[in-house]
């Protein structure tokens, strides 16, 4: 099969329907383990470390979500995966959105807990002072200077602030994530995802409405996540996505795969008709 472009966690029978799982910042593919443990008897699951961090640290690119989507596509192609539902949470959701437009080789797509650059309500999110870290992470070099050596407490701030039940993000998992981003290249790779937002927005706003994706999309948010889910779904429809459903994940804030893995899997599997 050859070398894959990104490192993956894999569970379940490859002959079943495949769910490809993309994590967000500041996490790794490990964020999907609670869902994979519940789902592996019914589906084939492939969780990918995004380019630049953890097992994919050698693949740091420019941070644009289109480039990252191409890396995901290489995994799907080299693993010869068929009947794929692509699921992305946080930054992984931005990558999944880019994938929708770049490729037509998946059956369904799920985007979770994220605003898409250039897609409503993107401008409102940028103006929200509570989302200060978008601008901070985009500053060249300064985030690395201030965060390096303090990854665990810095990441803890976001886990505690954005989750509904912070205990679901275990100390073991938090330490694993901090270690995954602790290298100079890995820490910068994560911040590069933010530095690329302006380019991502330009790309998304320039996509041709003459070739809009027909792939069904499910948009999920934790029920305790801030923001009106109807607004996010309307933005996706206005951007040209033809089939958009949306639901709230019970008992979860920003991290449903860890806070509410059972409900997260139920919604994904119902949508994927598994």
Provide keyphrases for this structure.
13 helices; 274 residues; alpha/beta; seven-stranded mixed beta sheet; globular; Rossmann fold
What's the topology here?
Layout (H helix, E strand, L loop, with lengths): L7 E4 L6 E5 L10 H7 L4 E5 L16 H14 L5 E6 L1 H12 L5 E5 L9 H6 L4 H7 L3 H6 L3 H12 L8 H10 L3 H12 L1 H9 L11 E6 L6 H10 L5 E6 L6 H4 L1 H12 L2
Parallel strand pairs: 2-3, 2-4, 4-5, 5-6, 6-7
Antiparallel strand pairs: 1-3
Helix pairs in contact: 1-13, 2-3, 5-9, 7-8
Structure report:
This protein has 13 helices and 7 strands. The protein has 274 residues and is α/β, with parallel strands linked by helices. It has a single domain, classed as Rossmann fold, CATH 3.40.50.1820. A 7-stranded mixed sheet has the order 1-3-2-4-5-6-7, with helices on both faces.
For the record, the count of structural domains works out to: 1
Mean pLDDT, to the nearest integer, reads: 95
Largest sheet: 7 strands, mixed
Radius of gyration: 17 Å
The percentage helix is: 40-55%
Quick summary:
The chain contains 13 helices and seven strands. With 274 residues, it is an alpha/beta fold. The relative contact order is 0.17.
């Amino acid at each position: 099969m050859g070398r894959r472009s990104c490192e993956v966690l894999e569970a379940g029978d490859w002959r079943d329907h495949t769910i490809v799982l993309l994590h967000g910042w500041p996490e790794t593919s490990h964020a999907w383990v609670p869902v994979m443990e519940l789902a592996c008897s019914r589906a084939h699951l492939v969780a990918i470390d995004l380019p630049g961090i953890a097992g994919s640290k050698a693949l740091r690119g420019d941070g644009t979500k289109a480039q990252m989507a191409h890396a995901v596509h290489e995994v799907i192609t080299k693993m010869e995966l068929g009947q794929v539902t692509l699921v992305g949470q946080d930054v992984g959701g931005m990558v999944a959105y880019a994938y929708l437009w770049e490729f037509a080789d998946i059956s369904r797509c799920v985007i979770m807990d994220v605003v898409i650059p250039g897609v409503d309500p993107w401008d409102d999110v940028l103006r929200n002072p509570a989302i200060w870290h978008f601008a901070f992470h985009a500053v060249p070099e300064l985030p690395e200077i201030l965060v390096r050596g303090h990854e665990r407490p810095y990441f803890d701030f976001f886990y505690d602030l954005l989750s509904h039940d912070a205990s679901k993000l275990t100390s073991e998992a938090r330490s694993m994530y901090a270690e995954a981003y602790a290298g100079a290249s890995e820490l910068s790779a994560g911040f590069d995802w933010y530095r690329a937002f302006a380019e991502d927005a330009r790309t998304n706003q320039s996509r041709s409405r003459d070739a809009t994706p027909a792939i069904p999309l499910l948009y999920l948010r934790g029920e305790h996540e801030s923001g009106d889910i109807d607004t996010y779904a309307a933005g996706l429809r206005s951007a040209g996505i033809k089939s958009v459903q949306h639901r709230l994940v019970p008992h979860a804030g920003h991290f449903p795969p860890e806070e509410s893995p059972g409900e997260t899997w139920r919604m994904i599997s119902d949508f994927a008709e598994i």
